[in-house]
Amino acid sequence: MKKQHLLLLFVFMAVIVSRSFSQDSTLFNQPDYKRNIIKWNMTPFLLWGVTNINLSFERMLSPYRSFSVNAGHFVLPSTGIYDSLNIENTTNKNGFTVSGDYRFYFKTRNKQIAPDGLYLGPFMSFHHYQFQNDVTVINSPSVQGNLLLDAGLNIGTFGVELGYQLAIKKRLTVDFIFLAPAVAVYNFKAKLKGDLTVDENDEYLQAIYDVLVARVPGLETLIDEGFLNEKGVHTSLGLGVRYLIQIGYRF
User: Fold this and answer.
1) Which of the four, 112, 113, 131, 184, has the lowest number of CB atoms within 10 Å?
2) Run of H or E residues at 151
3) What is the pTM of this model?
4) Are strands 91-105 and 146-168 parallel, antiparallel or unpaired?
């Protein structure tokens, strides 16, 4: 008797699940369902400057799965004059970023099918930044000369993201990624040129280092203060995070 009850319960649950999936598939396959989204990533634009233009494309694969790819221009903000150091505007600075993710939208939690609702998925990203800086020391009897720094920064990140996308009517979306623990691999390459004469224990050498650290967040964890007298590549492994806001248009 108990076996019959369990069998009936199993059949009942199977019917419910199949009917729900069938309804979702019907909505997903309707001609007016918009499977593609083009997005503007506002985060680097607001944080690092108006030249950071990043676009994203998301494609719905099923009622509860999708993937997205992202690419754009990436440069870090410049700093100005620090104490008696004259830091010229950064020249030849450029960079790019590319990333991608695979999203699983929560079926039991979300009221609508993708792209609306809470999602979880793996992601990976790569950032490259190249810049040159002219450094001129003034008003210092112990430090004289000019310095040209030619440097590049690469950051590769792998992690898992948690986000929420709000679909507004049929066309607009607002996408938030608010939690994304990750492992990041940093690579920093620097080359110094010039005729700078300086005592290694002088306060102005430390000032130059402080300005460079302010320019490249996280640089102090990659290299030590002696790098100003070196040439080479420095690599480090650490933890990273990802957060962003995107405005999208469905088509």
Assistant:
1) 112
2) strand 146-168
3) 0.70
4) unpaired
